[in-house]
Each structure stands twice: as structure tokens, then as C-alpha cells.
Amino acid sequence: METMKDQTVRWSMLVHGDWTIYLAATAAGLCYVGSVNQPFAELEAWVEKHRPQSSLVQDDPWLKPFATELMEYMQGTREHFSMNCDLSGTPFQLAVWEALRQIPYGQTASYTDIANIIEKPAAVRAVGAAIGANPVLITVPCHRVVGKNGSLTGYRGGLPMKTTLLDLEQKSNRGVKHG
Predict the structure, then answer these.
(1) What's the CA gap between 104 and 51, in Å, rounded?
(2) How many CA atoms lie within 13 A of 11 on its CB side?
(3) How far apart are CA 20 and CA 39, in angstroms?
(4) What are the residues facing 56 on neighbouring strands?
(5) Are 24 and 32 in contact (CB under 8 A)?
(6) Tell me, what's the pLDDT at 177?
(7) What stretches of the chain show up as alpha helix (H) in DSSP?
(8) Helices 91-101 and 124-132, interaxial angle, to 10°?
């Protein structure tokens, strides 16, 4: 297996209302958006598992452009993200994450829909696992995936976060920046 070269993962904490979210990025782009109000240990564990040769360095000014876009989204003034993402996963995971990015703002899709989009209709459970492994919450909008019957299903950030994000998109479908 190819060894990942050493790289710096820069991180910052975004505060929005009563939410705190850890963000991390490499020189290639945003690589991690954490769950709401989770400890720094969640980010550390993710870096240790997925980017073990990397050093983790706090760098608030460097992450400001990423934080700004996320804040605009959470304030209901941004619909699309213009930032680069540095996603590393299996080819299947990357295909699922790209399909998630195609779900329009304010809309939802089912796990079956995503399986069909990536032309793997029998892989609904694997799609669910790939969605659960999405390292970049909000930016890769896994919160827009719901059960076949429209019910809210699991979300790494927790169902309250998922509900809040879906409600935000329903309320702010006008006057948004298209990044």
C-alpha cells in the first residue's frame, strides 16, 4: 500500500449560536467538518485514523475562508460552497460523496436514490456506510439523505443537527449566494 506523505492538517473551531464545530483542512482543501459540540478528541481520532502521517496544527486565520463559507451557510445566506475539499476514501465512497453534492439545496434524496445515481442499485447498505463515513459534514450534504419513506435516519452529527440543517434549507431558499 502506498504511504501517504507527511502533510499538515490545520484546524480551527467554528462557533455559531450554541454550536461549536471543529474544521480541518490541508493545502488541497477542507478535509473534515466535525459533529456539533463534540470534543477536539473527535478530530484527533479522525486525523490519526485517516491521515496518520500528518501533523495537526491550529491555524484560525488559515481556516477563515472555510469558516466564512460555513457560517454564511448556517446563517441562510449561502446555498453552494466554492471551497475545495480534500476527500480521501475508497473509489466507492468518493462516488457516493460526489452524488451527495448533486442533491440540490433544500431537497432530499433517499439511500436508494444515491445507489441508483452511482449505478449500484443493489448497494443501498454500502451507500449508507459510505454516507456515514463522510468526513465533511454540511459541505458534502449527507444531511439531505433520508429514508425511503422520507423519515430522518442516522447522521454522524446527530439527528438534532440534521433536523436543524434541513429546516434551515427549507426556510432560506431565497436570497442566497451561489458560491
Answers:
(1) 30
(2) 21
(3) 9
(4) 9
(5) yes
(6) 46
(7) 40-50, 60-74, 91-101, 111-117, 124-132, 159-171
(8) 80
85 is catalytic: no
pTM above 0.85, yes or no: yes
Residue 174 CB partners (closer than 8 Å, separation 6+): none
Of 157, 128, 176, the closest CA to residue 20 belongs to 157
Catalytic residue, from 24, 87, 103, 142: name it.
142
* Strands across the sheet containing 55-58: 29-33, 19-26, 8-16, 55-58
- The amino acid sitting at 108 is T
Q: What is the pLDDT of residues 113-136, one digit of tens each?
A: 999 999 999 999 999 999 999 999
User: From CA 135, how far away is CA 117, in angstroms rounded?
Assistant: 20
pLDDT digits (tens, 9 = 90+) for 56-74: 999 999 999 999 999 999 9
One-letter amino acid at 45 equals: A
Give the H or E element holding residue 9: strand 8-16
Q: Which residue has the cell 461549536?
A: 20
Distance in angstroms (rounded) separating the CA atoms of residues 144 and 155: 10
Residue 85 near residue 62 (C-beta atoms within 8 A): no
